[in-house]
Amino acid sequence: MLRTYFNQKAATWDATIAEKDTGKLERMAQRLEIKPGSVVLDVGTGTGVFLPFILRRTGDGGRVVALDIAEEMLHMARAKGFDGHVEYVQADVCSLPLLGGIFDAVVCYSSFPHFQDKPRALGEVYRLLKQGGAVFICHTASRDAINGIHRSIPAVANDLIPDRSEMEAMLSGVGFNDVEISEGSDSYLASARKGRSGQAPPFVPRCG
């Protein structure tokens, strides 16, 4: 059902819903610890709104995998012809067809609320990260604003950003360390790091 919703929205997404303030997008990208040459997974890339800002940071030696559950969203992103090493993958974040331990960073820009099984999705993100890699859950609007918008749309009314304590518990629960959450009047950023101890995350049930 979620895939159908976003497929239907793809053609008009940039004109009606996507963030249009490139300054806000650039400032958010600057807050993420993405170094030149990094291998980055952009989960819920949608029409690729945040992709150029990630690609500027990975540089010529980096690589970005843009992932989305909705194929029409990916079609819109691919059609923009972004410069840089970017690959497009259609998949559900709860069950990713990718090898573990290959990404330096995972970015979830404006997508985390839509993860239907958030603990399972975070477990998959943890699996895919290298030791020392980081996850960044970010929005260019406040948590209250995002949740208010979603509650007004029946198809995504339950797709919300958790409160601070729940988010911290979910990230820590799958094995992440150095959890930090910053809530501003026009932004939201939660970050966490996969520790270097090599300790496996606890078992998290699969989606469905």
Explain how this protein is built:
- The chain has 208 residues and is α/β, with parallel strands linked by helices.
- It has one domain: Vaccinia Virus protein VP39 (Rossmann fold), CATH 3.40.50.
- Helices cover 33% and strands 24% of the residues.
- The protein has a seven-stranded mixed β-sheet, with helices on both faces.
- The radius of gyration is 16 Å and the shape is globular.
- Mean pLDDT is 93; it is low at 197-208.
Based on the model shown, name its key terms:
7-stranded mixed β-sheet; 8 helices; alpha/beta; Rossmann fold; 7 strands
Order of helices and strands: HHHEHEHEEHEHHEE
CATH class: Alpha Beta
**Number of helices, where a helix is a run of at least 4 consecutive DSSP H or I residues:** 8
Biggest beta sheet attributes: 7 strands, mixed
- Rg, Å, rounded: 16 Å
Number of DSSP strand runs: 7
CATH superfamily: Vaccinia Virus protein VP39
The helical percent reads 25-40%
N- to C-terminal distance: 13 Å
Indicate the overall shape.
globular
Return the structural class.
Answer: alpha/beta
CATH topology: Rossmann fold
Give the strand line-up of the largest sheet: 3-2-1-4-5-7-6
Unreliable runs: 197-208
